Task: inverse folding
């Protein structure tokens, strides 16, 4: 299904997989070279939009530091080995580790790019099943885990997450998201700026609640600072206000969620007056937000990273959903709506089991078969049965992206065997004994199997690989399937099923899903062969009201699950109302993203890291002028930032855009460890904010990491 190499210039239509926005791209190639990447104007979903990162796809493809052949670590350094040799050795080492130390002694960590890779999503599971280990971790627990739990509980499926109907809403409240930098998350939305402007253009409002006046806040109709980690209080008070002001209007949702109004007694103690000072907002501001939200013809309250990855993130996401329901804005045009994807993964994916098993050391609950990644290092270092001895890292860089990265870095060094499936020698991959490098995005077939589920409009599109595979390259799915087959063989299990899978390929599975799907195009069922003839993709219309069909519970009702979520109010009360917070010297750490970053891995592209901040690129600590005075810090001066777990030093950036008492540091930097091979990134190394975040502080309801609202202390650096 791949194109052939041509000595003439060729144009290909594909999709950028770097963030969730699913922008269509036009890639011009000549032989094996990429000449340009621009927005595909004929793509009905993204209509020509791309951000500066699109060109990073070319940089990734051409990167001289990119690993293209499997590598084995030897006493004399890295040695190139053949694929067969590499896969045999990896499978044998994992098998031997399990023979010696038990099934659970091999763990996996899956990083974010897997979600953008249909091969990993569809065929990766064969590998985990062959491993049989419960010791599974992923970036989900430093990210969207609360969304999954809320959807699992309320609607019966972890991935049945409603999406803001941004193109029709008259009031868009964004809590802890900065789509102007991130291009949207759990909201696949190209052209975000144009769409936010369009809301304002039709006399609607964009309202941002954020401890930082972010790029999105800058263009909003209204922005309110909020103290990090207090969003659950805000939501409780907003719901309380709804009841007090007699503004409850669930409409048809009352039928679908019969116990919805019972939330009233739980929120009764949380008046706007009582929570105001804790959140940093005034009671009248909170009430005004509710008034305006209810007055709008349609409205949606959306919470993302800032609201999710904090101590009460799960409760916050739950309350956001309840607020949308109580105002009648779930499953309604201009509110939160379910998607209707052409290839619907949900019926085939696990609905998400909660707490079926627990981590060995801290007894943290698993969700959907994965443990919270905050527990990873202790599971590696605490002796006893089930201790992790070998690790498989698939498209992730947890040393930089998960809490207390420094400790994890050390823990990795003690493992017996590590394999990294990655095309870069990263901070994590350098611990590997064997590196298995897959091809980059443009060299593999692509159907966005995940993000159509989270898109603000229904559409469908398939992009074959732009370059034909060369004899010595493999995709992620080929690596996973190769390992799975070998492991089964070593375990004495039949391997006949693999023959059919090699033949079918992930694209064959997508083809089946499309053919089983709900759409037809001009009377014909949608299929891969149809999409090959329509390389820009097909628009399938706006999101549609979908209740009760969207509910996976047998009774087709929304399960409010008060017994699961409401006990967390006790923890919230203890934290906010029964504990004295007297330390006025600490600041609250939060994160940020920049349009030209992508977590930890685009820093080897010169185009992406070039900045004004000599050698630091954008890795700076933003603080408010009042705090600069308080701690005698000048702009650009190097400061030390300390937390319970570590210390980093980086330049201060003094700005009124940040709330007093708050400090913002981006993640994904810190490329100065020994043994990496990222020439550009090492020049713009920065430091890792996750050397400050604390693996022992979690959102206890879900086990999600707390990356926002971490207490830190700052001082000017003497050196
Ligand atoms: N403090 C703080 N920490 C954070 C966050 C934050 O906001 N603040 N955000 C969190 C979030 S939301 C996320 S999702 C995580 C991300 O955390 P991770 O997923 O652990 O890290 P990434 O930086 O995305 O690393 C991805 C790795 O995959 C490799 N890669 C890229 N494409 C492919 C591919 O197609 N196949 C394979 N095999 N490898 C590939 C890259 O080279 C890179 O090394 O970080 C989290 N960490
Ligand atoms: N350019 C770029 N785009 C990306 C990524 C990237 O690294 N770079 N990563 C991708 C990934 S993996 C993800 S998950 C998405 C995330 O996308 P978003 O969810 O939009 O995340 P951020 O851009 O980090 O914005 C989070 C906002 O929350 C605010 N915040 C922090 N703490 C709090 C708090 O306690 N309360 C409130 N109300 N706000 C708070 C921050 O100031 C920030 O403005 O972005 C994706 N897109
Ligand atoms: S917005 Fe996201 S999908 Fe679109 S070009 Fe930028 S990185 Fe790629
Ligand atoms: Mo993420």
Result:
């Amino acid at each position: 299904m791949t194109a052939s190499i041509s000595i003439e210039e060729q144009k290909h239509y594909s999709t950028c997989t770097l963030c969730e926005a699913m922008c269509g791209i036009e890639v011009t190639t000549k032989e094996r070279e990429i000449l340009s990447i621009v927005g595909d104007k004929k793509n009905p979903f993204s209509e020509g939009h791309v951000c500066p990162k699109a060109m990073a796809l070319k940089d990734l493809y051409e990167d001289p530091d990119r690993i293209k052949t499997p590598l084995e670590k030897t006493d004399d350094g890295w040695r190139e080995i053949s694929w067969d040799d590499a896969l045999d050795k990896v499978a044998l080492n994992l098998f031997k580790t399990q023979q010696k130390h038990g099934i659970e002694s091999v763990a996996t960590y899956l990083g974010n790019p897997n979600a953008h890779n249909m091969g990993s999503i569809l065929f990766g599971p064969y590998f985990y099943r062959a491993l049989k280990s419960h010791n599974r971790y992923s970036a989900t627990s430093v990210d969207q885990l609360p969304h999954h739990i809320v959807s699992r509980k309320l609607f019966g499926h972890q991935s049945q997450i409603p999406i803001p109907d941004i193109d029709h809403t008259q009031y868009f409240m964004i809590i802890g998201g900065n789509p102007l930098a991130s291009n949207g998350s759990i909201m696949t939305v190209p052209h975000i700026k144009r769409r936010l402007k369009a809301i304002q253009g039709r006399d609607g409002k964009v309202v941002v609640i954020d401890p930082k006046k972010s790029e999105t806040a800058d263009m909003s109709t209204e922005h309110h600072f909020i103290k990090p980690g207090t969003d659950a209080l805000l939501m409780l008070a907003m719901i309380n206000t709804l009841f007090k002001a007699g503004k409850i209007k669930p409409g048809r949702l009352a039928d679908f969620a019969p116990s919805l109004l019972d939330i009233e007694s739980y929120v009764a103690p949380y008046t706007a007056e009582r929570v105001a000072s804790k959140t940093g907002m005034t009671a009248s501001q909170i009430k005004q937000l509710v008034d305006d939200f209810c007055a709008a013809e349609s409205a949606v309250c959306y919470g993302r990273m800032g609201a999710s990855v904090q101590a009460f993130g799960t409760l916050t996401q739950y309350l956001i959903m309840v607020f949308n329901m109580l105002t009648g804005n779930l499953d309604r045009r201009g509110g939160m709506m379910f998607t209707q994807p052409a290839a619907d993964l949900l019926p085939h994916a696990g609905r998400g089991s909660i707490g079926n098993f627990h981590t060995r050391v801290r007894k943290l609950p698993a969700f959907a078969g994965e443990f919270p990644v905050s527990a990873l290092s202790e599971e590696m270092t605490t002796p006893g049965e089930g201790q992790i001895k070998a690790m498989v890292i698939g498209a992730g860089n947890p040393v930089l992206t998960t809490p207390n990265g420094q400790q994890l870095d050390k823990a990795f060094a003690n493992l017996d065997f590590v394999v990294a499936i990655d095309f870069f020698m990263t901070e994590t991959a350098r611990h590997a004994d064997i590196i298995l490098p897959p091809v980059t995005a443009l060299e593999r077939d692509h159907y966005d199997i995940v993000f159509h589920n989270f898109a603000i409009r229904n559409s469908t599109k398939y992009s074959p690989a732009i370059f034909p595979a060369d004899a010595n390259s493999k995709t992620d799915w080929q690596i996973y399937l190769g390992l799975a087959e070998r492991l089964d063989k070593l375990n004495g299990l039949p391997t006949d099923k693999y023959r059919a899978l090699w033949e079918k390929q992930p694209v064959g599975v997508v083809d089946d899903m499309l053919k089983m799907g709900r759409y037809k195009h001009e009377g014909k069922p949608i299929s891969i062969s149809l999409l090959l003839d329509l390389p820009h993709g097909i628009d399938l219309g706006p999101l549609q009201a979908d209740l009760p069909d969207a509910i996976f519970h047998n009774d087709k009702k929304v399960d409010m699950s008060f017994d699961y979520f409401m006990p967390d109010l006790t923890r919230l009360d203890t934290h906010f109302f029964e504990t004295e917070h007297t330390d006025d010297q600490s600041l609250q750490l939060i994160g940020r993203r920049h349009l030209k970053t992508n977590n930890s891995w685009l820093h080897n592209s010169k185009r992406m890291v070039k900045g004004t901040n000599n050698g630091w690129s954008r890795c700076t600590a933003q603080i408010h002028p009042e705090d600069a005075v308080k701690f005698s810090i000048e702009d650009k001066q190097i400061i030390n930032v300390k937390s319970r777990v570590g210390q980093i030093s980086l330049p201060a950036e003094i700005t009124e855009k940040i709330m007093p008492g708050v400090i913002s540091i981006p993640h994904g930097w810190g490329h100065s460890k020994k043994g990496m091979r990222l020439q550009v990134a090492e020049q713009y190394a920065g430091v890792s904010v996750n050397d400050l975040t604390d693996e022992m502080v979690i959102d206890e309801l879900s086990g999600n990491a707390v990356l926002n609202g971490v207490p830190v202390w700052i001082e000017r650096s003497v050196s």
About this structure: The longest strand covers residues 647-654.
